[in-house]
User: Fold these one by one.
Assistant:
Number 1:
Amino acid sequence: MKILGVIPARYASSRLPGKPLVDILGKPMVWWVYQAAKQSPLLDGLVVATDDERILAACKEYGMDAVMTRADHDTPTARIQEVSCLIQADLYLQIMGDEPLIDPKAFELILPKELPDDPYYVAGVTNRMEHPADVIDFSNQKVVCNARREILLISRSPIPYPKGTADFEYEKITGIQLFSKKALDFYAATPKSALEQAEENDLMRFIENGHTVHAVLSPYKTVSVDTPKDVDIVCGVLRQRQSR
């Protein structure tokens, strides 16, 4: 079984243009993600998938494997599907390029020891949210699962609504997601679903079309960098790590 780690790194970001190249303690942000991911012995390969020559040049400068993909992809899943047409693997692990605090131990939770029976296999790592402010933050995409840990719905709204009880542990989807080749090809061949368009979440295309998306709860927290404030938070955490 071959598992390829793919780091989608798009230059155009509405809130933080050139985000993969944002300086984090003297290195571009995508470098920190790559260095963390390559520590995992479970990956048979690791590649940055970008749409911009500046990111490609930075990858070359810092010794990171990278491939150019089309500029018209509007989701990371679509970009990974293009990579799956260029590099053969059984499973493709998405590792978002804007999470420099990512812990490769989370890969051990989501990567199966054997190839799944479901040819359209999809899974995503989730984290519990501890603060009420995180639950109402629309940038955190909340997840509701059934008893088998299959995702029923992903929403930017606080779900479920705590009418009967507030005794509920909210979860959010993270940037670590796993796809089989057939799942990626299904995604590319299928129009955007209604809820996907409303919530702007890739995984809803699978769920709305009857495919199972597995949720894997992880204790390893990370920070998605979307604003200059997030950059400051990440730099602070990394400085603490380096001083230990």
Note: The chain has nine helices and eleven strands.
Number 2:
Amino acid sequence: MLFVEVEMPVFDHVYDFKVEQREKVGKVLFDMITKICQKENCNLEGDEEKVLLWNVEQKKILPRDWTIEECGIQNGTRLLLI
């Protein structure tokens, strides 16, 4: 289990998430979107597949079919939901 910070610029807010190292990025991303939308009382409009996770430190998009571990995510990693 890792703890990461996820920034969502549209809400100008940073969220803390627990993620499993062996989960696929696509699943983690879906769970994050669901939880953020519940908290902010919003609906995600459009194609969910166009939403991406950007690793701020590595300056790269996380591939949906890779695991969190394969992406090199560690405790405290800062991600951007775009």
Note: The first helix runs from residue 25 to 40.
Number 3:
Amino acid sequence: MACFTVSAVAAIGVGVARHIVKYNEKKAELAGKEVDLNKFGAELKWSKKLGILETALFAGSFLLAGEHVIHGEVTPFPPFLTAMESAEETAEMLYEMGTVGVAMLGMVVAFWAIGIFVYDLVKYRKRKGKKVAEVK
């Protein structure tokens, strides 16, 4: 009924965190601090990684919101969510948000983390392989 709101709120939080991280990255760059590219995970900046997560969360949230609109669970007039018309339906909606919404959020974050880890691992091994080839 309103499980998409969990992902939307999380995406907003990730967006705020991404802007803070991006600000700190630019601040460090202007201060002349160089990133050690020999470290694992240094290929892609954290602001970019968080941007990918933010996009995934917003995309999933908008797709789910569209599905809920099609099924008549979201309306263009107040209270917008049909589950908020009675107390019983509101309790059911909050339960769904706490179970289904949080589970979907956890899955998106888990798949994002696995994808970022695999990307960093592949890039790190390529860089490490080039370094070993240069030494020989």
Note: The CA atoms of residues 16 and 54 lie 10 Å apart.
Number 4:
Amino acid sequence: MPIKPENRARYPKDWPAISRRVREEAGNRCEGSPAYPDCRAENHQPHPATGSKVILTVAHLDHQPENCARENLRAWCQRCHNTYDAPMRARGRVT
């Protein structure tokens, strides 16, 4: 997910390296989310369920960009990331 300009300062300066490491550790595939635990969509390939090009993202499970502990981060496809974030967005909280 793109980082909103107003939230950029909340991310550590080495976020690009952290994000890359998480995606590499996941084999450049989605790690699967609670909604889609078996998802293994491959980065830059058509998504097996949606057909759209996968852009692998890194999600913060607690929605706190400052918390970059590996256990708080997941490499997710857009479908998994957006589905996970949907309840937060519905409540009007967008990070």
Note: The beta strands are 57-60, 73-76.
